[in-house]
């Protein structure tokens, strides 16, 4: 079986050392672990600012980097979901500090001092990770000197109870191909972020999710068999059943995360794209 290039850090000229003997490459390298220090960083298949976005890494997530070019691009593998690609090297820093907290609000401003009246340095999206070193009043102070409102953060090991409810918090967020942040995300990005918040490991792309998540449901067009949390898959698209009559998804049709009547959504998507390919039930 040919390894999936999206999940395999290997090129004809370079590959990760642990793949030696499994793939062919001119040279193999150990790589180095780095931490994302920007609010988010684009990941692409080619080292070019004009290359299509394939995914994003959020602040505090880690990447195993196997090459850094003189043009300022890093090639590596995201540790959380195994995705491989190129990202700007300036978005990465040392991975010396272990994250202690993550953002629980849709967006959390990072202030340069202990006052909400100060202009924020940046906005961190839901699920971004930070290392807290001390408390100052109502703020938690990070290892890089940022001040975040304490209620916007939870311990990194905290788990949400309901991934459908988590996904619903993104209603109205912009659709962004390859996006994973509250500023914009795609269909599989929404599913991944929601499931990861509840502690469920989730691949990045919808075809990967269809293969890896839950068990197949014999749907046969009977929507009465669907229940909250079921994942509905079409070729290139995934949505979440919110309840017996509602579909929740990030869709390019509306360029937004929307709540859509289930029956009409199924008819619309089949007419413009393809019929439902599978239903996967978690738990």
Chain-wise SSE layout:
Blueprint lengths: L14 E2 L11 E2 L2 E5 L3 E5 L8 E6 L3 E7 L4 E6 L5 E5 L3 E3 L6 E3 L3 E4 L11 E4 L3 E2 L1 E5 L2 E4 L4 E3 L3 E3 L7 H6 L11 E2 L2 E2 L1 H11 L8 H7 L2 E2 L14 E4 L2 E7 L2 E6 L4 E6 H11 L5 E4 L2
Parallel strand pairs: 1-2
Antiparallel strand pairs: 3-6, 3-9, 4-5, 6-7, 7-8, 10-13, 10-17, 11-12, 14-15, 15-16, 18-19, 20-25, 21-22, 21-25, 22-23, 23-24
What key attributes describe this structure?
single chain, 283 residues, mainly beta, 4 helices, 25 strands, 12% helix
Radius of gyration: 20 Å
What is the residue-averaged pLDDT? 97
The end-to-end distance, rounded to whole angstroms, is 30 Å
General form: globular
Word description of this protein:
The longest helix has 11 residues, at 187-197. With 283 residues, the protein is mainly β. The protein is built from four helices and 25 strands. The chain has helices spanning 163-168, 187-197, 206-212, 262-272, and strands at 15-16, 28-29, 32-36, 40-44, 53-58, 62-68, 73-78, 84-88, 92-94, 101-103, 107-110, 122-125, 129-130, 132-136, 139-142, 147-149, 153-155, 180-181, 184-185, 215-216, 231-234, 237-243, 246-251, 256-261, 278-281. The strands form eight sheets. The protein has a six-stranded antiparallel beta sheet with strand order 20-25-21-22-23-24.
């Amino acid at each position: 079986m040919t390894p999936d290039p999206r999940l395999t850090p290997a090129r004809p000229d370079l590959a990760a050392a642990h793949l030696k003997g499994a793939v062919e490459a001119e040279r193999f390298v150990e790589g180095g672990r780095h931490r994302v220090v920007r609010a988010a960083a684009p990941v692409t298949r080619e080292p070019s600012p004009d290359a299509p976005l394939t995914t994003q890494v959020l602040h505090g997530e880690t990447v195993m980097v196997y090459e850094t070019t003189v043009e300022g691009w890093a090639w590596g593998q995201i540790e959380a979901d195994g995705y491989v690609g190129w990202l700007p090297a300036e978005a990465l820093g040392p991975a010396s500090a272990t994250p202690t907290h993550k953002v629980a609000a849709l967006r959390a401003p990072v202030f340069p001092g202990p006052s909400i009246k100060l202009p924020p340095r940046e906005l961190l999206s839901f699920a971004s990770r930070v290392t807290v070193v001390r408390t100052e009043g109502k703020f938690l102070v990070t290892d890089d000197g940022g001040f975040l409102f304490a209620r916007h953060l939870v311990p990194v090991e905290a788990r949400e109870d309901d991934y459908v409810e988590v996904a619903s918090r993104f209603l109205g967020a912009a659709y962004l191909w390859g996006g994973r942040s509250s500023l914009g995300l795609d269909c599989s990005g929404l599913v991944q972020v929601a499931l990861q918040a509840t502690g469920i490991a989730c691949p990045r792309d919808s075809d990967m999710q269809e293969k890896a998540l839950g068990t197949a449901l014999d749907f046969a067009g009977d929507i009465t068999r669907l229940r909250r949390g079921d994942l509905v898959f079409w070729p290139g698209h995934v949505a979440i059943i919110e309840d017996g009559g509602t579909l929740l998804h990030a869709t390019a049709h509306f360029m937004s995360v929307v709540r859509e009547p289930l029956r009409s959504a199924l008819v619309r998507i089949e007419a413009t794209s393809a019929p439902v390919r599978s239903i996967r039930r978690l738990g």
